[in-house]
Amino acid sequence: MSTSERALWKGRILALAGILFVALNVRTAVAAISPIIGVIENDIPISSLGLGVLGMLPPIAFAIAGVAAPALARARGLDAGLLIAAAAMVAGSTIRAISDDYIVLAVGSFVALAGMGIGNVLLPPAVKKYFPDRLATVTGGYVVLISLGAAIPAFFAAPISDAAGWRVSVAVWAALALTAFVPWLMLTLRGSHATRRAVADDESVLPLTPHISVWAVAKSRTAWAITIAFGVSSIAFYSFFAWLPEILIESAEFTPVEAGAMLSLFGLIGIPLGILSPILASRVSNIGVVIAGGVFAGVLGFAGLAFAPTVATWLWVVLVGIGSILFPLCLVLINLRTRSHEGSAALSGFVQSVAYSVAALGPFAVALVRELSGGWVWPLMFLLVTSLLALVSAVMLARPSFVEDEIDFPAAALDE
Fold first, then answer.
1. What pLDDT digit, counting tens, does each position of 214-265 carry?
2. Tens-place pLDDT, residues 16-56
3. pTM for this structure?
4. Cβ–Cβ < 8 Å for 214, 346
5. Any idea what DSSP says for residue 217?
């Protein structure tokens, strides 16, 4: 490594490790339980509605984190905020593994998911703080690891459970979360120049007095269009992660291992979609066409699983996964449809708070419809109909528009 390269990376290798390991862990708790829920029920009785509540927890935790994480970073510093997030991931997964009743299992799940939600929110400012000259590269790397973090537990949860029991299977992800805890502990404790300036740096990344408030964005047509698409995508994503193994085990006679593999496939699709979304968003003049294409793929996937679950099951799962392109696409649009850093931050807070709050109802609604109908056709039809709502966003986002222009934000302020 040349002298210039060493200077470029000096003091940043540990931060890079921390960012990447947090990214690897911010989805593990979402996918770690659903493939083995039948085994867990042998020790802890869980009703269908109880399963629905567990499915609601990820978006609820992420919605709360959208508000709490910036405040935590301002109060404690960005490094300490990510350390707390990693500690919650470790603690929550550990509580899950030792739980002996539903309440403890749910509490452990919420703690783990809250840590993941905080980590998810603080990753972008961490990249901006440590890698302002490598934003695209580091961001692309952690987006890929987020998708891997969703796919790996889905694939390995059932085999580990078969070999060593469900508690070991759940505890594995607490051990993995330690990889995120250690770098941020070292960064917080080492007292480096960057760490001593953390609060000052964090205030520049997460301004205390933004020019645009989160709720002022509610006046924007574009903000609501992105929120609808983000919310619809989140409903499908979290409902699918909560219920796909059960759907395949009951409707397609899959084993838990096979169902977990399909859930892993669904998670892995996020890798190419995360890479493709920025390209499409920047090169396709009518982004509504991309949104409509994602909706169409998801509709075909839900219909296939409802009416032909044993025929080309992998194809239906892939199509639903393609439909989830709305999620990374919305993250890109948050920056593309704002003119300022303040506008982007406000839009991100508004979209994630509202959309995740609505998305929390998805897994529970699926559980309720299943309970009433006694099968999976109507729950899948519910998801199909819900996905069609994103066509509204496709129409509203067809032409380029900016949030600041729609809320009468003074143009002069954008230059401040």
1. 677 888 899 999 999 999 998 998 888 778 888 999 988 888 888 888 888 8
2. 999 999 989 988 888 788 788 888 888 888 887 787 788 77
3. 0.72
4. yes
5. G
Q: Which of 276, 287, 272 is nearest to 334 (CA)?
A: 287
**245 and 187, same structural domain?**
no
Evaluate the CA torsion angle 55, 60, 62, 65 in order and state its sign. Answer: negative
Q: Is residue 185 part of a domain?
A: yes
Who's near 291: CB < 8 A, 6+ residues apart?
229, 326, 329, 390, 391, 393, 394, 397
Residue 137 domain flag: yes
303-356: pLDDT as tens digits: 999 999 888 899 999 999 999 889 888 877 877 787 765 666 677 778 878 888
Q: Are residues 162 and 249 in the same domain?
A: no
- Residue 37: give the domain boundaries: 8-209
Q: How far apart are CA 196 and CA 111, in angstroms?
A: 28
Residues 6+ away with beta carbon under 8 Å from 283: none
Tell which of 209, 239, 271 closes a domain.
209
Whether 1 is in a domain gets the answer no
Lowest mean pLDDT among 123-137, 154-168, 318-332, 359-373: 123-137
Q: Which residue reads 């509202």 in tokens?
A: 354
Please tell me the distance from the alpha carbon of residue 72 to that of residue 81, in angstroms, as a whole number.
6
8 Å CB contact between 263 and 314: no
224 and 367 in one domain? yes
Residues 227 and 313 in one domain: yes
Contacts of 394 (CB under 8 A, 6+ apart): 229, 288, 289, 291, 292, 295
Domain CATH number, residue 188: 1.20.1250.20
- Residue 10 token pair: 């000096």
